[in-house]
Write a structure and sequence with these properties.
Blueprint: H1 6-31, E1 39-42, H2 45-54, E2 62-65, E3 69-71, E4 81-83, E5 88-89
Antiparallel strand pairs: 1-2, 3-4, 4-5
């Protein structure tokens, strides 16, 4: 039986981790809402009719959150946003990969963001305005 060297083992592990990360990004591109926020608006005719009957102004529809988005109740307000895809939260230092505005529903991952000029999804189909994302969170290459 031939044993792999430490270097071969390390390279195999890196390849496997990169493959898992790439698969997660591919799945995320199909479920993350399009736009700059961690939610999208969907029609809600029943709820809209009730709100319209009150006579108060409202935006029709309801918010459908990203499956990776979460607000942590154990963290302080305006520092409690968390993204399960990035595995990062607002309470973590930005310089170390933390996020800034997930608490407000603003997207940090860059997936399915609209291109600033055209209003269309990014040219590569998954990442639009990725320049806003925290350092080291997008297009990661493990080494």
């Amino acid at each position: 039986m031939i044993r792999e060297s430490r270097e071969q083992r390390r390279e195999r592990i890196v390849r496997e981790r990169q493959s898992r990360f790439d698969r997660r990004r591919a799945v995320a591109a199909t479920v993350v809402p399009v736009g700059s926020y961690c939610y999208s608006r969907v029609p809600d005719q029943a709820g809209d009719a009730e709100r319209a009957a009150t006579g108060e102004p409202f935006i029709p529809g309801r918010n459908l959150p990203c499956p990776y988005y979460k607000l942590r109740k154990d963290k302080p307000a305006q520092r409690n946003g968390y993204c399960r895809l990035l595995r990062r939260g607002d309470w973590e230092p930005y310089e170390k990969g933390g996020t800034l505005s997930l608490w407000d529903g603003c997207k940090e991952c860059g997936i399915n963001e609209l291109d600033d000029d055209s209003g269309e999804p990014g040219t590569d189909g998954s990442v639009g305005n990725a320049s806003r994302a925290a350092p080291g969170l997008l297009d990661r290459t493990l080494s």
